[in-house]
Amino acid sequence: MSYLVLARRWRPQSFDEVVGQRPVTQTLKNALAKDRIAHALLFAGPRGVGKTTTARILAKALNCERGRTPDPCNQCTSCKEIAEGRSIDCMEIDGASNRGIDEVRELREHVRYAPSRQKFKVIIIDEVHMLTEPAFNALLKTLEEPPPGVVFILATTDAHKIPSTILSRCQRHDFRKLGQGEIVERLREIARDERATVADGAMKAIARAAEGSLRDAQSLLDQVIAYSGAEVSENDVGAVLGLVEGEVLAQAAQAIIERDSGKALGLVESLSVRGYDLQRFCQEMLVHLRDLMVTKAIKDPAPLLQASRVPPDTIRSQAQAFTLADLETIFQVLSRAEFEMRRAPHPRFVLEMALVEATEARALQSLETLLQRLSALEERLLVGPGTATLAPPPLELSLFSAAPTASMAEKRPPLQDRPPAPRPPAQAPSPLPPSTSAPDPQEGWARIKQALEGKKRSLAALLEEAKGVQVESETLIVTLENGTSFARSTLDDAENRGLMAAAAAEAFGRPLKVEYRFQNRSIPSAVSGSTQITTGQGEPIQPSMPRPRETASPERSVAPSDQGSPRRHPLVQKAVELFGGEVIRVSEKEPGQDVIGERG
C-alpha cells in the first residue's frame, strides 16, 4: 500500500524536532560538537517517546557527508540510507527476535570489520532487555572495548531487566513521558498539515488516552480522522476510544449527591447492555471526581480540568454539593474498586457495590469534632447532685436519638475540682392543634414509614426491621435488633436524624424526640428475681441470672466503706454500671510508676 501512517510520516529527522526530550538531545548535540560521543549508549524510557528515532538521528549525525555534526543535512546519500533503514553500516536489530547467544556471536563477527562506506558502524539494538543471560554475557567484552569506529546504541522500555554488568558499560540517557500540552501542540501541527479540523476537546481526549506516548497519539489521530473525516469532534473521539458520554458521568455523580442507589445501578446496567468497558467508566469517574475536587479547591479551575466532556456549569454545581472530605472518601471507594476490577471474575459486581457504598458514604469526622463530642459527654457524665445522667436500659447495648434525649435523674457525689454543670430549663412540649388527635403509635409509625419511603428508601428499608414502637411522654422509642455498625452509623447520620424527626413530627402532630434501642439477647443482664424485661412486641422475658463470681482472694478484697477511694469517683461508678462489672483492686501509684493499679 502507498499510504504511510502519520506516526512514520511525522518521525523527527533532527534533534530539534524531537518533542519533549531536550535534556537528552542537547547532551548528544554537545557531545557531537566536542567529539565526546561514548562508544556505548543506553536509551531507556516508555514506549513512543523517541528512543529509536533519536538513535537514528545520532547515526546520521555521525555519518553525514558534511562531517560529524549536531545537525545532519538529511539530503546526502548516507542520511537518506539511514533514514530509510537500508544502510549497511547502520544495523537495527530487534532484541526480541535475535535474543540468543548465536545471534550475538554473529554480531561480534560483524563489528570486527571496518565500516564499508560510512565513517562509523552504528549498531542499534531495540528492546535489548529481551536478550538472554548467555547473550548478555557474550556481549560484555565487545560492549566494553569495541573496535574503532563502532558505536552501540541500546534501547529499552524496561531498564531494570538489564544486568548491571551491561548498565555499567553504557552511558545512560532516560527519556520521559510527554505532557498533554506537548502532545496537543504536535497534534495541531499535524492536523493543519492534513487539512483536518479537530476540536480542542478532541485533542485533549486523544492526548489523555495516549498516556504520554506521542506515537500512540499520532496513531489515534490517524484513526479518528479515518472515522469522521475532515471534521473531528469530541464525540467522534469518544466513539472511537469507547469512552462514555459526559452526561453519563454527570448522572453518576448526581446519583451519589442524591444518594440514589437505584439510579446508580441503573446507569451500570445501561452501560453493560451497550457493551462499554466498566473499568474504563470507573477510571473516568475518578477523573470527574478529581475535577470536582479542583473546582472546589481553587478559584479558577478551568486550566486544570481534564474531563472536558462534562459541561463546566455542571461541574461547578456538583462541586458545591460536595465537601472536600466527601470527595476524598468517595474517591477512595472508587479507586479501590477500580483496582479490584482488574482481577475480579465479575467486575460489574465490584463496580455496583462500590457505587452503592459511595451513595451511602460519609466523610470521617475530624479529630477536633470527636474531641468536642467527648468533652460534651464528659460534661454530661461528671455532674453534681441533683443533675440528670444517662442510664441505659438493661437490654440496650447502644442508644442514640434523632433529637437530644431526656435523662433519668440519679444522685451522684459532687466533683470537688469543678462546680456542677447547670441544668438546662425544661421546655414545654408543643400542644397539638385543636383539630388533631394523637394517633396510635402503630398508626403513627406506619405514617412515618410511608413518608420515609418517598424521601429515602434505604432509611425506610432499614427501619422495616423495627421490633416495637412506643411513645413515652415526648419521646418516640423504636426498638431494633442488635444491628451492624453500618446500620447504626446510618441511623446516627445527621441527615437521617433530621428526616426521622421531621417525619415523626408530621405523623404525630407534634415535635417528638426519637430514640433507637438495640436488643442483644446473647448478653445476660444482672437484675433482681422479680424484674421482667419486655421486648418490642410486649412479651415478658425472664432474664437469666448472672453466674456468681468466685470469691475474691484476700489480696484482692477492698473495703467498700472507704468513701475517699477512687472507686467512688463518678466515672468509675459509671463504668461499673455500664459494663456490669466490679472493682477488684485499687492501688496507689508508687514513685516512678506510670500506671495506677493493675488490670483485673
Concise description?
By secondary structure, the protein is of the alpha/beta class. The protein has helices spanning 6-9, 22-33, 51-63, 77-84, 101-111, 133-144, 164-167, 180-194, 200-210, 214-228, 234-241, 246-258, 261-273, 278-297, 312-321, 324-341, 347-360, 367-381, 441-455, 457-463, 485-491, 494-508, 570-579, and strands at 40-44, 90-94, 121-126, 150-156, 171-174, 197-198, 231-232, 388-389, 396-401, 408-409, 468-472, 475-481, 513-519, 533-534, 540-541.
Fold and architecture overview:
By secondary structure, this protein is of the alpha/beta class. The strands form five sheets. Strands 2-3-4-1-5 form a five-stranded parallel β-sheet, with helices on one face. The chain is built from 23 helices and 15 strands. Helix 6 (133-144) links the parallel strand 3 (121-126) and strand 4 (150-156). The longest helix is centred in the middle third of the chain and has 20 residues, at 278-297. The radius of gyration is 38 Å and the shape is elongated. Helices cover 45% and strands 11% of the residues.
Key features of this structure:
5 domains; Rossmann fold; 600 residues; four-stranded mixed beta sheet; five-stranded parallel beta sheet; disordered C terminus; alpha/beta; Zinc Finger, Delta Prime, domain 3; 15 strands; elongated; 23 helices; Helicase, Ruva Protein, domain 3
